[in-house]
Description:
Layout: E1 4-8, H1 19-28, E2 33-36, H2 45-52, E3 59-70, E4 73-80, H3 87-113, H4 120-126, H5 133-142, H6 149-157, H7 172-181, E5 185-188, H8 198-206, E6 213-217, H9 223-236, E7 239-242, H10 265-272
Parallel strand pairs: 1-2, 2-3, 5-6, 6-7
Antiparallel strand pairs: 3-4, 4-5
Amino acid sequence: MITYDLHVHTTASDGLFTPSQVIEKAVRAGLKGIAITDHDTVDGIAEAIGCAAQYPGFVVVPGIELNTNQDQQSVHVLGYGMDFTSYRFVEKLGQMRQWREERAQAIVQKLKCLGYSIEYDEVQHQAQGAIGRPHIARVLAKKNLVPSANWAFGHLLTRGKPAYVPRHPFTPIDATNLIHEFHGIAVLAHPGLIHHQNLVTDLLDRHPACFEGIEVYYPAHAPYQVEKYRAMAETRGLLMTGGSDFHGEGTSEHAPNIGFRGINDELYSVFQKEINI
């Protein structure tokens, strides 16, 4: 039985619900706790913890999802239990937010050159927190410039498409170093989405001290992938985590509901011993 969802997004990044709304949904879903893992920001954690105080025993795990690149592949790294109130940590994340804004501006400019009537201030208005490609896709869809936000991603915004702009250079090991610097643990997020699977084993085996866990349970992981990543975790002595990647809307990867994927009490008890909460 799933009791903890360790991969949840809010309006602090590209989610559609505020941290408080996310907590309310998680409580109604019967969960015992969630991790707030917004992209490159911890801005939603304090509000979530404050809301959760209304529900004795409900756990909010401070988390983050860092977007990185390795060998021209997108790799996401989840961090848990960091000192998210540290001024130095927030300052470093501010630099990453600046990279995001510069990238979004470049994407908007490419779209305009392609004939799409979109302005950067519209994207800023759509994004209540850290700006990302989902906000651009939603603006395009809301203005009926594309059939849907998913269409915008598939045809315009992903690698190899006409409006794609690479991220600022930031590797998975850069991400794990940042998480460890502020006393967190690092987990390789949704490995099944990494295009070349040899990169998964390369990251785990060439850098054995960098990752404490693997996100085994994920909406887009087929049963055979779950077993594959379970075995990888077990043979390497790594934590097994899981979550819905809830954003508030369903896509081919994200779950439409909090708690759709996650972990049970037994796995959480192992996880809890490794984090600072």
